[in-house]
Amino acid sequence: MALLSQGCSPESRSAPEPHQVQEEGEHESCAAFKKAHADKFTVTCYASKEELLADNSWCRQQSEGQPGAGIPRKIQGLFWMKDCPAMERELAFCSSIGSWDGKKSMRQTPAYTFVFEDSHGGYKLFWQMYLNSMFDNIPMGFQETDYTVDFKDDNNTWATSSPHNVGGFTTMVFAATKRWSFIQRDTAGNVWDRFLNSGLLGNTMYQAVRLAAWDANGNDISENDSNGLNLELKPGQQWSTHKILDSYSDEHKEVLSNVNKYLTSSGSEERFGKVYDKTGELITMVTSTSGKESFSVSDIRKLFLQDPYSEPKIVGTSYKPFKSKYFRVSPLDV
After folding, report:
1. Which of 40, 48, 71, 116 could form a disulfide with 122 if both were Cys (CB 3.0 to 4.6 A apart)?
2. Is 317 helix (H, G, I), strand (E, B) or coil?
3. How far, CA to CA in Å, does 280 sit from each of 186, 271, 322?
4. Where exactly are the structural domains of the chain?
5. CA dihedral 138, 141, 145, 146 (to 10 degrees)
6. Which residues of 66-103 are buried (b: 16+ CB within 10 A; e: fewer)?
7. Of the candidates 231, 246, 158, 191, the residue with the CA atom closest to the CA atom of residue 77
8. DSSP label at residue 233
9. pLDDT in tens, 126-164
């Protein structure tokens, strides 16, 4: 699971109700899902990735007085959950509509900020988040699953995330979770490593990559041109002789080391910011038309719109191509 709150306070929510779940291998159409649950929430259906990118009405920069006002610009926008593990059928999330504490903490209700695949797996995941439950038809929490994303440094270059409320989903899944992290890879914050250290459940990772960011009027404010952070340690080099890495806290360095260990164990090697395969060839997360590694929003969009997009670049990641239709859900009062 990924990032961030729509601004619905827990006090304003009524307890979710059970529903009839579909059998494995089948699912109701988005139109039927929308009609059947019109009394609970608003459903928006997308027939293509192009339709999703064209709709910025729900993912805009929030104005003064709204819960998400003040969210740093570099972490606003619609983010593609690139290389998301096979069992997770969420495609993207919007961080602009999370709530912000004015300092370093952002909060999200994934049921309302994620874009899900229009499939059995997508609906199942939505219901688990909406009902705050390990099950997709039995509520176990008092409200929808919430997460906080807490930035750990003054420049907001890395963060940890954790569940906010207490319920069945939190109790049964996150009891075994050790640490989930976001690590900035480029100067604009267009690409973030999402490292999931889940303790007894094992580790995995993907990239959260920005597809767009819009101001309150729907104008694109994405910073297209961006360069990778120079985090590579040269052979034999120590932290103390690297200008950027030495400025990181011990906790931040530990997260980077865990990413390296994960990639190495899965057949790749990351040398603090650059990933190489077994032959020593540089693996790029996003590739430009010139064949070089890119962190630009335009190149990210091109890759996203491939159907299906190029194979994941993280060796060892269990990945299942996404279907071409998607949906998102909003509270009735939005």
Report:
1. 116
2. coil
3. 22, 11, 30
4. 10-224+324-331
5. 170
6. bbbeebeebbbbbbbbbbbbeebbbbbbbbbbbbbeee
7. 191
8. P
9. 988 888 765 555 555 556 778 888 999 888 888 988 776
CB 225 within 8 A of CB 210: no
Q: Enter the tokens of residue 226.
A: 């961006």
Residue 90: φ, ψ to 5°: -105, 140
At 304, list the tokens.
């996203």
**pTM of this structure:** 0.83
CA–CA gap between residue 313 and residue 270 (Å, rounded): 12
Dump pLDDT digits (tens) for 34-86.
Answer: 999 999 999 999 999 999 999 999 999 988 888 888 899 899 999 998 877 76
Please state, in angstroms and rounded to a whole number, the distance separating the CA atoms of residues 223 and 229.
Answer: 15
8 Å CB contact between 110 and 88: no
**Per residue in 226-264, pLDDT tens?**
888 777 777 777 778 888 888 888 888 888 777 777 776
Report the DSSP pairing between strands 282-283 and 275-276: antiparallel
Count CA within 13 A, CB hemisphere, residue 136.
Answer: 15
Whether residue 142 contacts residue 163, with contact meaning beta carbons closer than 8 Å, is answered with no
What is d(CA 81, CA 328) in angstroms, rounded to the nearest whole number? 15
> Helical H runs in the chain?
30-36, 49-54, 110-113, 120-131, 168-173, 250-265, 297-305
